Amino acid sequence: MKPTQLKPETLAIRGAKSQTEYREHNNALFLTSSFMFDSAADGAALFAKTKAGYTYSRTANPTVAAFQARVAQLEGGEAGIATATGMAAIQAALLTFLSAGDHLITSRSLFGTTAGLISGHISRFGIDISFVSQTDTAEWAAAIRPNTKMLFLETPSNPLGEVADVAALAELAHRHGALLAVDNCFCSAAVQQPLKLGADLSIQSATKGIDGQGRVLGGVVCGKADLVNQIALYVNSAGLSLAPFNAWVLLGGCETLFVRMAAQSANALALAQWLQTQPQVLRVFYAGLPEHPQAALIAQQQSSGGTVLALEVAGGQDAAWQVIDAVQVLSKTANFGDVKSTITHPWTTTHGRMSAEDKLAAGITPGLIRVSVGLEHLDDIRADLAAALALL
Ligand SMILES: *Cc1c(COP(=O)(O)O)cnc(C)c1O
Question: Which of 185, 201, 240 to mutate to test ligand 1, by most ligand atoms within 8 A of the CB atom?
Answer without folding.
Answer: 185
